[in-house]
């Protein structure tokens, strides 16, 4: 029995590329302005810190003393009019038993605004973002431990739904069931992925159909 459904946000509950183009531009602009570097250097730092730390903000804090809350609020203040409600996903979430949470490496109120725009906010009991995790991003083990502690999630009766393969491995090791959604389909199959589907709605339809 799944009691807690833990969903990633970007590229899981909605396709992120359109919105993320603007967020990426805002990251570059913030880094260029704050560190007094040009756009090319800002892009390099953004990508380096993302790959090194799992989130650009962590590198900016560690190496440049950037105010994490200020950075996250600025970069996520994007135009959400590029998103639209998802009535199919809304209906599937309404049929899904158990508590639902969002677990994201975003911050600055990004998840809450996206859920409102998609018409999905009513389904989610909590949002746990990188600020709530004390700037420990997925896939760092601390992020999962802090989610569990903050919201009394029992890993043995929880599932993590993600588009990023590497974020599922620590969750599975801690006892979560795991679902990978999106185009990535590891071949050969990896033991820490229990379910795979091309998108979250397909996964939920299959799950609900299997439950009868």
Q: What are the main properties of this structure?
A:
212 residues; Rossmann fold; single chain; six-stranded parallel sheet; alpha/beta
What is the topology?
Blueprint: E1 4-7, H1 17-35, H2 39-53, H3 56-64, H4 68-75, H5 87-95, E2 99-103, H6 110-118, E3 126-128, H7 141-151, E4 158-162, H8 168-173, E5 177-181, E6 195-197, H9 200-211
Parallel strand pairs: 1-2, 1-4, 2-3, 4-5, 5-6
Task: Describe, in plain words, how this protein is organized in 3D.
The two termini are 14 Å apart. With 212 residues, this protein is α/β, with parallel strands linked by helices. A six-stranded parallel sheet has the order 3-2-1-4-5-6. Helix 6 links the parallel strand 2 (99-103) and strand 3. The chain is globular. The protein folds into two domains: 4-15 and 84-211, Rossmann fold, CATH 3.40.50.1000; 17-75, DNA polymerase, domain 1 (Orthogonal Bundle). The chain is built from nine helices and six strands, in the order βαααααβαβαβαββα. The chain has helices at 17-35, 39-53, 56-64, 68-75, 87-95, 110-118, 141-151, 168-173, 200-211; strands at 4-7, 99-103, 126-128, 158-162, 177-181, 195-197.
């Amino acid at each position: 029995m799944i009691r807690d459904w833990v969903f990633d946000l970007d590229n899981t509950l909605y396709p992120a590329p359109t919105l993320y183009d603007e967020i990426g531009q805002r990251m570059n602009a913030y880094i260029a302005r704050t560190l007094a570097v040009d756009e090319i250097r800002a892009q390099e730092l953004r990508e380096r810190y993302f790959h090194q730390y799992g989130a650009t903000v962590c590198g900016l804090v560690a190496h440049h003393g950037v105010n994490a809350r200020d950075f996250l609020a600025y970069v996520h203040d994007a135009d959400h009019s590029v998103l639209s409600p998802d009535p199919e996903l809304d209906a599937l979430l309404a049929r899904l038993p158990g508590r639902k949470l969002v677990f994201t490496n975003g911050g600055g109120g990004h998840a809450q605004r996206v859920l409102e725009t998609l018409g999905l906010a009513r389904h989610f009991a909590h949002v746990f973002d990188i600020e709530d995790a004390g700037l420990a991003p997925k896939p760092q083990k601390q992020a999962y431990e802090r989610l569990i502690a903050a919201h009394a999630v029992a890993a043995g009766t929880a599932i993590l739904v993600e588009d990023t393969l590497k974020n599922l491995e620590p969750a599975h090791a801690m006892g979560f069931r795991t679902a990978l959604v999106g185009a990535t389909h590891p071949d050969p199959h990896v033991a820490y992925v229990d379910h795979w589907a091309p998108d979250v709605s397909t996964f939920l339809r299959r799950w609900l159909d299997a439950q009868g």
